[in-house]
Amino acid sequence: MSYDLNMPIRQVRGVGEARAKQFAKLGVNTALDLLRHFPRTYENLNEIKFISELREGEDALIRARVRVPATLQFTRNRSARNITVYNAVAADDTGAIKITIFNRKYTAEALERGKEYLFKGRIEFDRGALTMSSPEIYPVNKAGSLRAVYSLTAGLTNNIVSGCVKKVLDEMDAADVDVLPAQVRAENGLADAAKCYRAIHFPKDYNDVTVARRRFVFEELFLFQLGLQMIKGRNRGLTGAPMGDADITPFTRSLPFELTEAQKRAVAEITGDMRGARPMQRLLQGDVGSGKTAVAAAAMFFAKQNGYQSVLMAPTEILAAQHFKTLSRFFEPLGVSVELLTGSTTAAKKRDIKARLADGAIDMLVSTHAVITDDTSFASLGLAVTDEQHRFGVRQRAALAAKSRSPHVLIMSATPIPRTLAMIMYGDLDISVLDSLPKGRGKISTYAVDGTYRSRIFNFIKKNVDEGRQAYLVCPLVEENEELDAASAKQYYEQLAQGVFRGYSVGLVYGKMPAREKDATMAAFAAGKISVLISTTVIEVGVDVPNASVMVIENAERYGLSQLHQLRGRIGRGQWDSFCVLISDQESAAERLQFMAKNSDGFKIAEKDLELRGPGDLIGKRQHGLPEFEIADLERDMNVFYDTLAAAKQTFESDPQLKKPGNAPLRAWISRMFSRTP
Ligand code: ADP
Ligand code: MG
User: Fold this and answer.
1) Domains (ranges, CATH) in the chain?
2) What is the number of the ligand closest to the CA of 291?
3) pLDDT digit string (tens) for 266-283?
4) CA torsion angle for 365, 367, 372, 377 (degrees, to 10)?
């Protein structure tokens, strides 16, 4: 019988109840999880120092002979904690050092007089004596080797983890553990799994680690890509809402502007998909202000002309309200019925809207993601547009696609994402890009300054307001705590409204504010009744007030480049020249902020952000939709990623359902990977 790597960790020899619980805290529940609890880093038992060269405070490895075995120094058992301290003395040819061991009786007593060991630990001076306290102790034959260092939890030591890993490695059946088909391994020069598990946990040298790591990175990205291919394939098998040719010129003619070439191209791609038999799964990418809403509206109108309903979902109520306003303006003159459904819609109105959706009286619905649930039924939903802002991960999308009655799906992404990253996040989607902005926009100039400019900046705001413009002022951030940020936003608002902006109409919005108030303030700002809008980053996404021409951002160093770009995208939407001022007193941020001042292309900024901060940060820490990889690191492993694309495509094309016997492990693995909640 082969060794089952999916068995509970409790069944690994030597792992008891208590230990299994400790492992569970690390997310290690099976033997396989344990093998995939990859080392965090490696300790190099290589650079051995002489005792005479040791410095206080450094972590050092020495090779020394025990001169005085450990003796119990004192026990402090009156206090809450029992602390026993053992002291020993060890020496090499250059000097002697005191070795202090806390609590570890057996470790201390095992040290033999006259025998040589490796000691690794922090160097201190204890009452003038050179001391290494709580060292890791190894036999001398370990010199020159690498030792895996794991993430741990209370009660689990590195040695325990290592020991358990070793048991699994020694007992498992080498032939049975490889998820990658032999052919894929051969074509991509990857070693087999059993060998790599051993190498990554017990490497002889760094080369072992590199070879094993590449294999696991490849495996992870390959499986992910293959999973995306399968989702895409499954969607292809669904029947959508096939539409016929329809005339959308009544819509385009009613617009106050002509669509840009990029918009026209995107509309053609989208309506092309919607005429197909399978449901569209398309991402619409475009820089801030590139006019994604008009493209979505064209698609919605196309659905309407074909007798289908459509829904546009936004992540926040502010945005939903704005989209509703835009669509109403576009469509009411054309006799299309548009409704808004959000969390703050009254119960009676909600009931009414749901009834009219179900009987087909409503053509287009604007809503927040949260409000559309399973019990919202449409008479004939043909198109679902989400203004996503990355709040939807691949896995959620997979779930959604499986559940819905497969309308066409269009996802609008608010942040330009470098192509490579988009391929990872949205590998299951077709992509349309709006790569140019509408003409006739004013110029945006950006300045990065320090706080000494603040009063001059406030005067500049007043001057612009006096000329009829409006301004955004983004509050200082206290920390990532909404309560505290709200408090400081209010304080900042009061200080300015009663101080430098006395006599001006000043408004405040922040995340935790009741939706009704927030909407009212935004509406007042949009209507020009508020001149200076003080806010937290809730205005970041999508807000569109063309008359606003100044954006001042306090604590600019706290934001990522892409986020600053989003904020800056709120201005420069009208015909006036606009000004963005980034205030920061932090020297270390100067270069980044200067980059913002010099660059306006969102894709370029996103690339820089990716380079500076990594993909997780680039698109926001929480719910960013990027899969959490166990070992792959998208910054380091882009080249491996490209290799996996071709391999995944080939595997998928030769066996789309992974039905071949050799592919069974792949199938099991992928279904686990995509069903796990992120
Ligand atoms: P985003 O892509 O950031 O969502 P919006 O859809 O909010 O951009 O559009 C930004 C602004 O540009 C809106 O005021 C919109 O009316 C305007 N706009 C969109 N398309 C065009 C165009 N082709 N010509 C001129 N203005 C346009
Ligand atoms: Mg938008």
Assistant:
1) 47-143 (2.40.50.140), 284-434 (3.40.50.300), 451-584 (3.40.50.300)
2) 1
3) 999 999 999 988 889 898
4) -10
